[in-house]
Write a structure and sequence with these properties.
It is a single chain. This protein is an alpha+beta fold. The protein folds into 2 domains: 12-95 and 134-237, no CATH class; 100-130, no CATH class. The chain has 5 helices and 10 strands. Strands 1-2-3-5-4 form a 5-stranded antiparallel β-sheet, covered by helices on one side. Strands 6-8-7 form a 3-stranded antiparallel β-sheet, with no helix packed on it. Helix 3 runs antiparallel to helix 5. The longest helix has 17 residues, at 221-237.
């Protein structure tokens, strides 16, 4: 039998992710496992317009595709049992891997990892937030700067069995004001690689073509202008940025 049309074939709900802050369901379209987030299940936020999170998730996928790094799994808008929403292909991560971790401060690996911050846990032990030092995670960090991700938690990074890293949960992106909150601060001030700069350039160029036309149906004009400005600024500086403003530089909770 031919594969089902992911945009129109029946979407069947199979479960619910109860830890999500907005209504998030597991489902299937034929044999394809998916995540479904209906717009009707989005909780109002003080700093993001209501009813726009699904659109931002799809916009993040489109930017990811143009960058060429497959950061965001296939994501699209479609109708479902609770109305229109975001649908994303489910990714089965490797439970034996962790791209981001909290470890005792005296157990931080000497190589292959970056330390972000230290603090005390509920038992008053000093712990460190660390993430792996890998090209895949660096690209995700660049992607987060470009889309202005306000919520890159540790659990929003899926460690795949083949070493690839997927990023998920991109509803809090593309704000016109700086909102970058992430656990991936380990490369602060480091120079961007040629590959990373090329990815930024592909977005800048795409904004005047097909990418810009597609995003125009998902984001406001002000948000698109801010996206273009972030790409230009990041390309010009050529380094991972530092936190700015008075808000927290990391999301809470971290995971």
């Amino acid at each position: 039998m031919p594969a089902p049309d992911l945009a129109t074939a029946e979407l069947t709900l199979t479960g619910r992710i109860t830890t999500a802050s907005n209504a998030t369901f597991l489902g299937s379209i034929g044999e394809a496992a998916v995540v479904y987030k209906p717009i009707a299940g989005e909780h109002p936020l003080w700093d993001f317009p209501s009813g726009t999170l699904a659109h931002r998730e799809v916009a993040a996928y489109l930017v990811s595709q143009v960058m060429g790094w497959d950061v965001v799994p296939h994501t699209w808008l479609r109708d479902g049992p609770m109305g229109e929403g975001m649908v994303q292909l489910w990714q089965e991560q490797d439970p034996a891997q962790a791209a981001v971790d909290l470890v005792a401060a005296d157990e931080v690996p000497e190589a292959g990892w970056k330390s972000v911050l230290s603090g005390r846990d509920e038992n008053d032990r000093i712990v460190s937030l660390i993430h792996e030092d890998s090209p895949a995670l660096r690209r995700m960090a660049v992607f987060d700067v470009v889309v202005n991700n306000a919520d890159r938690k540790g659990d929003h990074i899926l460690a795949m069995p083949d070493g690839h890293r997927h990023g998920v949960d991109h509803g809090l992106t593309f704000h016109s004001e700086n909102k970058l909150r992430t656990v991936l601060w380990g490369w602060l001030g480091d120079e961007l690689t040629d590959d990373e700069l090329d990815g930024i350039d592909r977005v800048s160029e795409g904004l005047s073509g097909e990418l810009g036309a597609a995003l125009a149906g998902l984001l406001t004009g002000e948000e698109l202008e801010a996206l273009s400005a972030r790409c230009s600024r990041l390309r010009s500086v050529g380094r991972f940025p530092a936190p700015s403003g008075e808000m927290s530089a990391v999301p809470w909770p971290l995971f």
